[in-house]
Amino acid sequence: MKKKYDFCLSLIIILILLLLAMSGVRRNQEALASRVAPEILRFHVLANSDSPKDQALKLDVKDFLLEMIRGEVPDSATREELIGYIETNKHRLARSAEHFMQELGFDYPAKVLLETCEFPQKTYGDMTFPAGEYEAVRVVLGEGTGQNFWCVLYPSLCYIDRTYAVVPDSSKELLQSLLPEDDFHSLLRFGRFTQYTDKKTEQDTLLPQIKIRFQFFEFPGRV
């Protein structure tokens, strides 16, 4: 009976140590996110619904708006200048998105907002950004209840080419100049790890869903 008791106690200790280790990793990731967030601007497109047509439309609108923004904002623009452009032109961007959707046969309203949002852990090419609060350009199509598209608008880590998910070297160099060296390399190290451990799509959350179940057994013996 003592051996069974020792086994159960050892198992509980291992689980506690595992939970403490996971908690430490999460705190480190939250701290990293708090340092990275002020240097970047994210891009978030919410589809009208999860229907195949609405999901395809979401990506078409994403490509349309990114091309429009990149065509009007110089490559040398700072994060603050890009935010100023979005704030000044958000209604025009929304109307342009509506006209684009109408040409494709969809009569959805569009909203372009500049908000601080909670983002999940997300991978772009070989870089992974931890979960946390980030300032974002948020595009809502129709009801905005479908699966979402996420990317980083500044520095430009959003893919126009859907076949090759490659982060431009110039964007990496800009991001590296904005962050402490250790933080930049943390994004790269974590990105390489998630490339091999997860194959989800751009709009999927990469945070692992961990469930721990405790089951109690009755051992025969005297009471």
List the SSEs and their pairings.
Elements: H1 2-36, E1 41-46, H2 52-72, H3 79-103, E2 110-119, E3 122-124, E4 127-129, E5 132-141, E6 148-154, H4 169-178, H5 181-197
Parallel strand pairs: 1-5
Antiparallel strand pairs: 1-6, 2-5, 3-4
Helix pairs in contact: 2-3
Concise overview:
This protein is an alpha+beta fold and 223 residues long. It has helices spanning 2-36, 52-72, 79-103, 169-178, 181-197, and strands at residues 41-46, 110-119, 122-124, 127-129, 132-141, 148-154.
Characterise the protein shown here:
The chain has 223 residues and is of the alpha+beta class. It has one domain (40-197). It is 48% helix and 17% strand. The protein has five helices and six strands, in the order H-E-H-H-E-E-E-E-E-H-H. The strands form two sheets. A four-stranded mixed β-sheet has the order 2-5-1-6. Strands 3-4 form a two-stranded antiparallel ribbon. Helix 2 (52-72) crosses helix 3 (79-103). The model is unreliable at 20-25 and 193-223 (pLDDT under 50).
State the main characteristics.
223 residues, 48% helix, alpha+beta, disordered C terminus
What is the rounded Rg?
22 Å
Q: How can the largest sheet be summarized?
A: 4 strands, mixed
Mean pLDDT: 79
Helix content: 40-55%
* N to C succession of SSEs: HEHHEEEEEHH
Adjacency order of strands in the biggest sheet: 2-5-1-6
Number of beta strands: 6
Q: Tell the overall outline.
A: globular
Terminal CA distance reads 11 Å
Name the beta content range: 15-25%
From the helix content, strand content and strand pairing, which structural class follows? Answer: alpha+beta
Tally of contiguous helical segments: 5
Low-confidence stretches: 20-25, 193-223
- Indicate how many domains the architecture comprises: 1
